[in-house]
Amino acid sequence: MIKQPYLLFLGDAPDRLAAKVAQGICDWRPEAAIGQYRMAGCAADMRIPDMSIAEAREAGAETLVIGVANRGGVIADSWMAVLEEALAAGLDIASGLHNLLTDEPRLVRAARKFGRELHDVRTPVIDYPIANGRKRTGRRCLAVGTDVSVGKMYVSLAMQREMLRRGLKASFRATGQTGIFVAGEGVPLDAVVADFMAGAVEWLSPDNDDDHWDFIEGQGSLFHASYSGVTLALVHGGQPDAIILCHEPGRPHMRGLPDYQLPELERLCEVVLTMAHIVNPACRAVGVSVNTSRFSQEEARQCLQDAEARTGLPATDPIRFGAEALVDALLSESNGETLR
Amino acid sequence: MIKQPYLLFLGDAPDRLAAKVAQGICDWRPEAAIGQYRMAGCAADMRIPDMSIAEAREAGAETLVIGVANRGGVIADSWMAVLEEALAAGLDIASGLHNLLTDEPRLVRAARKFGRELHDVRTPVIDYPIANGRKRTGRRCLAVGTDVSVGKMYVSLAMQREMLRRGLKASFRATGQTGIFVAGEGVPLDAVVADFMAGAVEWLSPDNDDDHWDFIEGQGSLFHASYSGVTLALVHGGQPDAIILCHEPGRPHMRGLPDYQLPELERLCEVVLTMAHIVNPACRAVGVSVNTSRFSQEEARQCLQDAEARTGLPATDPIRFGAEALVDALLSESNGETLR
User: What predicted TM-score, i.e. pTM, was given to this entire model?
Assistant: First the structure.
């Protein structure tokens, strides 16, 4: 568990995109981001208070989160003095960079000296079990995509937020770096050893109240040759009762795979249900989440109509139009006979 | 690459089953197993010459293979003196046990001193790439199962052997421990980090001659909740042109999953082709491999007839009746229009 609230370390981020981890945290846990720390040359700005280490500690920050990815995903030498200062001031540090905090002798020494924790969220720290496939109590919703990076995390977070707003029981179960920072915990699924992927997902989403929904963060796509195995482990380890189909119209090809076209939404629906029914014959697709960010308002509505016509399911862009329609669909399905 | 031939170390194996890795090597690369080393109390016997370390070296052995799995998969203290003697005599050591040769200071020291190699075949030693999904030259055959441990490795090895017997070009591509010992190289797929599984399979089966067949060792099952993600990485990273369906009739449930029934063969065929066509629309199922070892001859023939009736494909038990029928089916498919 990564202690919140956070001081978001933006370092010398050359642009906004380099700080997208920080952006995700601000979008989804604004209450957990009490300040930002920017170094000389930082071109990113989360529009939250700039704070020194001492000010952040004073304001109650518990963890400095490295919310920036620089070239190569490494911990820059120029950051080191700031990170040591943070540990000395009583902050833990959390990072999703490729090279590890725990591989930096200066940080390891300082953390030990000041009794602080170093969280490398890309590295599994638990020995996950082999999946046992047993039916668990509680309900589960998994977002799956026609491609990678089509908004699976965002729709899951938007639906969970809407559930909580309605006073219902819901958890977001993180499987990726940004998601883990948002939730404060989770499984870095793409770094888990193959044999334990499905078991890690079972571990992440244990038995729960009958009226509790887990919103499990999706990864990859069943149609993406590079990562489809990770996705299937989520489908089989997650045992979803409900599937949200995610899509971004207009992509010329699968991301990173110029030889591959995205599947149609109805094809994704058919294939994911085929695979999901192996572990849960009652699983249903309940709605479609469409990333319409590069379209005009009118085009966006057209995209949603197209998605609804293809699938017969309610479609929305949860960022643009809210997640109410998807939560309505989820609850109406689950109150009926179909989900139990 | 693990240097052959091998001295098979059976240690103090309590029974034949504990030496199943050695058995697999003897079954499929008898020419690579020039002797066995048995300690006091060893109840396994490969029926190959018993040799001392010195005798094995004299006979040309290059590597001592730990062909036994004891409780907990650990390297026993009682073995240590023998293993050090082997290194001193000029043998490398290879092991598929859970605890690693390279974690044993005595062995690491001796290997360094005598210039020998320690191979832990469960541990990936290569930084595999992310899969790129590009079409590769040459042809590929993948065995998939209704369950785990239904003979996928055996049918692949049997078909490769039959191809070579006919003077055709064929390689066996190992993805598991025993397979790696048999081939002398391969990818320990179940130990690869999630994001790199499909890339590891692409790496394992690179471009080749147009008339060359790779027989890729299968793992898990698309229907097995614990390991299905590994299987899908094989289907998408392997880009098979041909699928062999594998089945063992009569199992009461999926192995390790008492709540799950095995799928029917025709259902496996449908699902695996759905997933395979994502990366190779020309992929075809060409035959069925049935493990009939617990049935009488007559029952076995009945099993094959049943498999043929269900799938419309030729079926055989490659151990009992040979793999000719499957190779015939593979070649007749690939000479026609369907595979190119």
Answer: 0.94
